């Protein structure tokens, strides 16, 4: 329980400082006293489940991340709700990579699935993204149908 208490206090302090809130502002938004927030951040006490939920909602993180994310081990701050950092992968001689199991499980990716590889080379946003092929194909079919309907009904 001591380690969990330390994680929660560290995460609460980091989130408040990152968002540039005072303990008073957090207390007001969550509906507790400033002293309660101070005790949570110092590790003296931990918020109950309802307050954890309110804090997670306020900071836009998951309750699981709020109470379990270990910044020292991951070397990363708590990610926003729905955003993930799965770690690093090495690129093989022929450009192959192995997606981390946690990512494959979360996005239901299995052997033989089609993924579309997108890229952006502009400074400040450069990167590569993978999108399930069936999602892309579904959207293309939808656009074709939409554009086909517009040609039939010119107004």
UniProtKB/TrEMBL annotation:
HTH cro/C1-type domain segment(s): 12-66
Leader sequence segment: none
DNA-binding in keyword set: yes
SMART domains named in the record: HTH_XRE, SpoVT_AbrB
Sorted UniProt keywords: DNA-binding
UniProt-listed CDD domains: HTH_XRE (cd00093)
Transmembrane helix as UniProt keyword: no
PROSITE patterns linked: HTH_CROC1
A molecular-function term among this protein's GO annotations: DNA binding
Protein known as: Helix-turn-helix domain-containing protein
Originating organism: Candidatus Limivivens merdigallinarum
């Amino acid at each position: 329980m001591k380690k969990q208490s330390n994680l929660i206090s560290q995460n609460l302090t980091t989130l408040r400082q990152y968002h540039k809130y005072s303990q008073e502002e957090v207390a007001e938004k969550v509906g507790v006293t400033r002293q309660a927030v101070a005790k949570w951040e110092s590790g003296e006490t931990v918020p109950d489940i309802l307050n954890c939920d309110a804090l997670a909602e306020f900071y836009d993180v998951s309750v699981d991340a709020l109470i379990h994310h270990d910044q020292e081990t991951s070397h990363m701050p708590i990610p926003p709700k729905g955003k993930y950092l799965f770690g690093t992968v090495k690129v093989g001689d022929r450009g192959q990579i192995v997606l981390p199991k946690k990512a494959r499980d979360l996005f239901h990716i299995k052997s033989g699935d089609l993924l579309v590889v997108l890229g952006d080379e502009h400074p400040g946003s450069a990167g590569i993204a993978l999108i399930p092929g069936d999602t892309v194909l579904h959207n293309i079919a939808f656009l074709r149908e939409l554009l086909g309907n517009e040609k039939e009904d010119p107004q």
